[in-house]
Design a protein that fits this description.
This protein is α+β, with helices and mostly antiparallel strands. The protein folds into three domains: about 90 residues, Winged helix-like DNA-binding domain superfamily/Winged helix DNA-binding domain (Arc Repressor Mutant, subunit A, Orthogonal Bundle); about 180 residues, Endonuclease Chain A (Endonuclease, Chain A, 2-Layer Sandwich), CATH 3.30.870; about 55 residues, Arc Repressor Mutant, subunit A (Orthogonal Bundle), CATH 1.10.10. It has 14 helices and twelve strands. The strands form three sheets. Strands 5-11-10-9-6-7-8-12 form an eight-stranded mixed sheet, sandwiched between helices. Strands 1-2 form a two-stranded antiparallel ribbon. It has a two-stranded antiparallel ribbon with strand order 3-4. Helix 3 crosses helix 5, helix 4 packs across helix 5 and helix 6 runs antiparallel to helix 10. The longest helix is centred in the middle third of the chain and has 33 residues. The termini are far apart.
């Protein structure tokens, strides 16, 4: 190596240690590339091994939105995922794992803490003392630990849904004003309408009959009251027979309705994709990514008023909300045989139990008695070697059965 090359090598090393490097074109210094560190946690990209797959429906495009609709930036979501995966982490360590600038991570951690998704803890530093072993070093480093996401993110979902309903009502007012000033030029592509009484049933029936591509449905109480003139169950089954993709997330309270499991079986046999979630923060239905129905008021178990919206801008938040809930829910049925010596019926029992369904609700869904369900769960608990039902869930999760 010549003296000139040696000087250039030393200059480059000093620049790298200082966090700066020289731009070969302008001669100005710029931040150096971060050193390679441990691989960050894997993130779902929505692409297969051969590259991106073109998505056609608005719902499909919404699946890769992550937590953006709830106000989190991509960096904040990456940092949050890393803290959850690590169990705890410092700003410096998280920045190294994600290969991000420390200032970016610090800002993201501050925002996540403000949203109560993480909290601070002062971790005591450790050091090895020759002849004594590991001991406290006296230094402390701020670490961040994750908080349960369901409570905070669920509240954010409800807030966004309430904002959407309010925006829809405002759009309806503006549409009426536009109609008064421009008679004969009504546009239904971006509009909202409040329907009441039997109008709710008629609006839902019209949406089901007009569906062509996809129906996304959150199914929980209160329900839309059935009317002979516009039967909703046949309309939904007819959509499935026409080849419309139907994805439904059922809340556990839907299984408290006697006989409702018969409809769920019919829909499943016709191709409905169904999942379970113990609690749904709201109820709505989106059709073809362009129309949606959200209940506004209820009388007991029946919806008495609803907001019907048309237009991509108004339903985008609902699409994102549905996809987020879909990822958090458990499959109601799965194709294929059970594994590790467990039958599909036993796996189905575990999935329903994991969504906080009671023995009575499970028995209604399976068409048997609560006593039979209790006996089957006791046998399953023994098979898993668990002492309690909680332990049964933990063991099932450890084995990858849930």
């Amino acid at each position: 190596m010549t003296a000139e090359q040696e000087n250039a090598h030393q200059t480059h090393a000093q620049s790298h240690r200082s966090g700066l490097t020289e731009d070969s074109d302008s001669g100005r210094q710029r931040p150096a590339e971060p050193e390679p560190g441990p691989e960050p946690i894997a993130e779902f990209t929505g692409c297969n091994e051969s590259g991106p797959t073109p998505e056609t429906s608005p719902a499909a495009r919404a699946r890769t939105a992550g937590l953006g609709p709830l106000g989190l930036s991509p960096v904040e979501e990456r940092v949050y995922r890393q803290v959850i995966a690590s169990g705890a982490g410092s700003a410096r360590g998280t920045a190294r794992l994600l290969r991000l600038a420390p200032i970016e991570v610090e800002q993201a951690l501050a925002r996540l803490q403000a949203l109560r998704l993480i909290s601070r803890s002062n971790a005591e530093g450790l050091s090895y003392v020759p002849g004594q072993g590991v001991a406290a070093s006296g230094s402390r480093e701020v670490e961040y630990v994750p908080e349960p996401p369901t409570e905070t993110l669920g509240a954010l979902l409800q807030t966004h849904a309430a904002s959407l309903i309010s925006a829809g009502a405002t759009v309806e007012q503006l549409s009426r004003l536009y109609g008064q000033r421009h008679p004969g030029q009504d546009r239904l592509t971006d509009a909202a309408t409040v329907v009441v009484g039997s109008g709710v049933n008629e609006a839902v029936h019209e949406m089901l009959c007009g569906a062509r591509l996809e129906i996304l449905n959150l199914d929980r109480q209160p329900f839309v009251r059935p009317l002979d003139a516009h039967p909703l169950v046949p309309a939904m089954l007819d959509a499935l027979e026409r080849g419309v993709t139907v994805r439904t997330i059922y809340a556990s309270d839907a299984f408290r309705v006697a006989g409702y499991n018969e409809y769920i079986r019919q829909a499943r046999d016709l191709g409905e994709q169904s999942r379970l979630l113990s609690h749904l923060p709201l109820r709505f239905m989106v059709v073809d990514g362009t129309s949606a129905m959200l209940p506004l008021a209820a009388d007991g178990s029946w919806v008495t008023a609803a907001l019907v919206v048309h237009g991509h801008l108004l339903v985008q938040d609902l699409l994102h909300t549905f996809e987020d809930l879909w990822l958090r829910s458990a499959a109601l049925t799965r194709q294929g045989r059970g594994h590790e010596g467990f039958s599909e019926s036993e796996l189905a029992l575990l999935r329903m139990l994991s969504t906080d369904m009671t023995d009575t609700a499970i028995s209604r869904h399976l068409g048997t008695s609560p006593r039979t369900i209790g006996r089957r769960l006791a046998q399953l608990q023994h098979k898993l070697g668990a002492q309690t039902r909680f332990g049964m869930g933990v063991e099932a999760t450890r084995r990858g059965l849930l």
